[in-house]
Amino acid sequence: MAMYIRVKRNKTTYFVQCDPTETTLNIKQKLQNLIDQPSNNQRLSLVATNDILDDSKTLAEQKVENDAVVALALRKVSEYSFFLCRSRQL
């Protein structure tokens, strides 16, 4: 059964079509295509309960319903963490 959720970040809202059987990670991967941010830099939380959504659980398991509002937070990548990642590659 198809449904959609509203994903909000700042003043932008993304309408994402999904199924209750999809995991949070699947939703993050859909968002990755829209916002050009890797899924491991995203955090989704259900606005109604303030619960952070678990990547391995389905939307139904976390009681995310049709037309739910989900907040998107992005991890800020600092120059220091970029330097550490870069130095490990060398």
Number of strands: 5
How many structural units, i.e. domains? 1
N- and C-termini, Cα separation: 48 Å
Low-confidence stretches are: 79-90
Could you give a short account of the major beta sheet?
A: 5 strands, mixed
Number of helices: 2
Which bin fits the share of residues in helices?
25-40%
Return the CATH topology.
Ubiquitin-like (UB roll)
Beta-sheet strand percentage?
25-35%
Give the name of the CATH superfamily: Phosphatidylinositol 3-kinase Catalytic Subunit, Chain A, domain 1
What order do the SSEs take from the amino end to the carboxyl end, as H and E?
EEHEEEH
The best one-word shape is globular
Average pLDDT score: 87
Structural class: alpha+beta
Give the C-level CATH assignment: Alpha Beta
Q: What is the strand arrangement across the widest sheet?
A: 2-1-5-3-4
Radius of gyration based on Cα positions: 15 Å
Task: Write the CATH architecture name.
Answer: Roll
Pfam families: ubiquitin (PF00240)
Domain Ubiquitin-like: 1-79
Description:
The chain is of the alpha+beta class. The chain has a single domain, classed as Roll (Ubiquitin-like (UB roll)). 26% of the residues lie in helices and 30% in strands. A 5-stranded mixed β-sheet has the order 2-1-5-3-4, covered by helices on one side. The longest helix has 12 residues, at 24-35. Pfam families: ubiquitin.
Question: Secondary-structure map with pairings?
Answer:
Elements: E1 3-9, E2 12-18, H1 24-35, E3 42-46, E4 51-52, E5 69-74, H2 79-89
Parallel strand pairs: 1-5
Antiparallel strand pairs: 1-2, 3-4, 3-5
Please name the defining characteristics of this protein.
single chain; 90 residues; alpha+beta; Ubiquitin-like (UB roll); disordered C terminus
